[in-house]
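Researcher: Re-running this chain for the archive, since the previous output was lost when a drive failed. Same request as before.
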Amino acid sequence: MSAAAPFAVLDDGVRIARTGPQHAGALEALQHLVFPTLVDVERFKAPHYLRHIELFPEGQFVALDGERVVGMTSTLRLDFDFAHVDHTFADVIAGGWLTSHQPAGAWLYGADIGVHPDWRGHGIARALYAARQDVVRRLGLAGQVTVGMLSGFGAVMGRLDIASYYAAVCAGTLADPTVSAQLHVGFEARGLLRGYLHDPVCDGCGALLVLPADRDIPIRRQK
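Model: Regenerated C-alpha cells:
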C-alpha cells in the first residue's frame, strides 16, 4: 500500500489510510475525545504523531470522513516475551515517542486505537485492526499484541473485583465496551495486567490480547 492510496474505503465512504503529517493536530484533538479520563501525560500529542510517522510509517493509520479524522491507530514493532508479560503503557510509549520500537521486532504492538464517538458503530475500529493485520502479513510478523482497557469496570467496581470482571468478560457473561469488541474481532485474551496505565475508568487495568497472523478480519468495503 502506498502512502497515498487508502487501505480500504468502507461502505459509508470512510477511508482507512496511512497517517500523514497533516493529520497530527487533528489526532491530538481526537485523543481528548477518545480517552477523556486518561492521565494527560499518557496521551499522544501532535509532535508525537509526527515522530511515529518517522519511526514506523507503515504502522500508523487514520480513518477519514472526507478530510476529517474520525479514527486512528498507532503501532510499533516489538519482540514480545509471553513468559514475562507484565509491562505498562508508559514502558511501551516511552513518553509518547514510541522509541521502544524495534525495527526487526516479531510482533506488531497496538499502542492505541480510537474512533470519534459520533462515528462509532460503523465498523471503523474493525477496519483499523484489518489494516494492522495487513501490515503483519506484509512484514511477515507473528501477529498483533495489544492491551485492551477494561473500560466497563468502573461501572461495576463496587460489586466486582477486577479479576472476576476480567474472567466474566473473557467468558462472555459480561460485556466490556472495549475488550468484548476486541474479542469479537478475533483477539485472544492472554492475561490481566494490573497497573498498566493511569485511567480510573478501568482502575488502571487492561487485558493482554493477541491476534495471530493467520486470523482474517472481514470488513465492509465499498463495492
